[in-house]
């Protein structure tokens, strides 16, 4: 059992993206931080298993990295994608994400994680312990029980416990034993598999790396994001029943020839078959819960608090922003890093900070979970429709005219730090206005047509009839 | 480790109400049934802790007990309650539940459980093991690991595992590891505490035992159900913040004098204070999940599958009906008890039966969870409103005229076996008709009034004006 520290001690369960970034923030407050990670050190692995290979980093994630002064050395590896490239019928058409050249950025998940772990390792008040599986938490005594890789139990004591241990969080499970936590998990009917499009023989990208490529096919879709080695990582999302129907390489090639013909020569038949059958098929879950904390003892962040489907590219960004928002709220309640009240915070002040975080962040995270769910329909289907393109053009026109007052939803989510819940409600309200104007336009047309019709009718006989009726006497 | 049995073996986790009744059904199929219960034998306890003392048994529960031939000896203890007795301003007014003398029945939870355990103990192919805490399940090997009271691990093997282990089901938790289970749990903002109203000095009921008594107070309420010892068990439901505000006996008595004055002399000040501060305060949770099964290996029933708030008195009834519905579906897929196909069912037939059960029962159980949530508003608030009473009278009038075609919602839920989901959808549709007729009545009145007004107006000058205009030339 680690000796209780005179300093303020924090146990962060989970050394993935969010846990590692949060450790940087907490270490900057002078706290004695220990990160416990279930898996082995990702830096010793060739490729992390069972997780998506690349991610889209946008405004919120960048702001959070900046806030922890953790961007340098990482930002240089980003590949900006300024829009979607829609693949239909062998043709490609581009749709910009922003209206002023904004881009989201393809980045390697493993590289981000390694970058943050490297940064942590240089901080004197941070310890990282790999291969520590959380078994249970005693919240009253603030003791965490871990199983080490040799099977022995390791007990750790901490003033504060952070759960950054992902969708299937053990910290959350333990939290549910001591709080009345509302919780929901919803699997969508779609799974995914990752494929690879290698560089060309000349070592170049085989498609434009400045776009996120989408093959929208209504009920399913494939996407591709560029990697720095000039390859693309492609993800095929489709209902489980479609996966079940593909049993042989012939099934697979037939399916691709029918649906994604233009991608076959770029991927190569052999690699396509190999990757499809070798790579794990992942499920997609949306998780919401409330509250995120227990007194001043524990707080969950990232996927542990709000797992979302990946269709808005906000999972990492939202998790990183959690760390930034938490830091902002902590500063409000216990003061800036470096002050005495921050270095050794009182339980009362921490409790209040967590209460505020839990309440405000929950609304935002759940809004983002919903937006991510809606965006699946947009990506695989709406983007192909004229009404969608017209609405987007109209909104873009207004946005260019009034850049700060009419901001498209995608821009609010990906290129601003407007709280997710506010972005969602603005967008909903705007949708009602569009509907209203649309209806006014239709009604106006109908009423005008009727008016003209009536006038013509009246002139051609109606007046005579009325006159005859009225003037009979 | 228990030796694999040549017979078809079933492990039922949970020896509460639903687990015990289901064991009776399964034993009747000749299966080798072992019931594992976490707690000690309820028959050795004076009072089971932390659970409601009495429950309302109605049609579905009675049918399920009848279906297992498990009613005799229990039905004699039932206390029929034909309606609600509403306590407002010190006065009582009765509202019947049914329109043909139907009643729900107050029954002692402990007595029901003991009755079923006694019945099980007489069946040769049933074993009951108390103080067995489920640790984990290996679904592929069909092995259950239990911790016994002496701390040792007990391994059991079974062809089929039934989870009847309540709201915080371990079987469900293990099921979530092998299935993509959608799951939600929602705590309501209200807690409850049980109180006791003893018999009078003469040993009689102090209120009418033929009613379920309610003190509706809009945001909270108290209810009372009669017990066979002539006492009433009262349950006070209110927001947690109200519980938090009552810190002293003076706070409690002040609150009761203000809100439930008529109950104080019947309970007695001393007992009220004693019970309120001694008895545990319980939370109320609504749990939904899907699917309920894993292949032919495992199925969850009762609260483990669908915990509901207690405001429709359907928790036990729905759980009991689970057993009956499951038996009906099993008979459809594997044959009647006694047939060879039922005694030793194939995995394929069982799997299909569970798939059907999971799909149909889920819709019904979730409908019931929703109905239970709606009924909280009805019980604590709607029952006091004129519009509610008018609607109820009107519906009762129609029901008396057309007893089989217009059935009030409460009657469908409590006095019929119409599937819950159907009852809910019929009731929703009917609500739309009521709204429609209401609107037609309002519109009719308005249009008539406008018509009369226009006719009068036209007669008093309008015609002259039109005539002047038309005949000017």
Helix/strand layout:
The structure is a homodimer.
Chain A: E1 9-13, H1 17-28, E2 32-36, E3 54-57, H2 59-67, E4 79-81, E5 83-88, E6 91-96, E7 104-108, H3 109-121, E8 126-129, E9 132-138, E10 143-148, E11 153-157, E12 160-163, H4 170-178, E13 182-197, E14 211-217, E15 220-226, E16 232-239, H5 240-245, H6 249-259, H7 264-267, H8 269-278, E17 282-290, E18 293-294, E19 298-300, H9 315-334, H10 340-343, H11 347-380, H12 386-401, H13 409-415, H14 420-470
Parallel strand pairs in A: 1-2, 1-12, 2-8, 5-14, 12-19
Antiparallel strand pairs in A: 3-7, 4-7, 5-6, 9-10, 10-11, 13-16, 13-17, 14-15, 15-16, 18-19
Helix pairs in contact in A: 1-3, 1-9, 2-9, 9-11, 11-14
* CATH class assignment of the largest domain in chain A: Alpha Beta
Largest sheet composition of chain A: 7 strands, mixed
Give the integer mean of the pLDDT values of chain A. Answer: 91
CATH topology grouping of the largest domain in chain A: FAD/NAD(P)-binding domain
Distance between the termini of chain A: 111 Å
Uncertain stretches of 5 or more adjacent residues of chain A = 1-5
Strand content of chain A: 15-25%
Key attributes of the depicted protein:
FAD (chains A, B); mitochondrion outer membrane (chains A, B); 19 strands; transmembrane helix (chains A, B); homodimer; 473 residues; 7-stranded mixed β-sheet; 4 domains; FAD-bd (chains A, B); FAD/NAD(P)-binding domain; alpha/beta
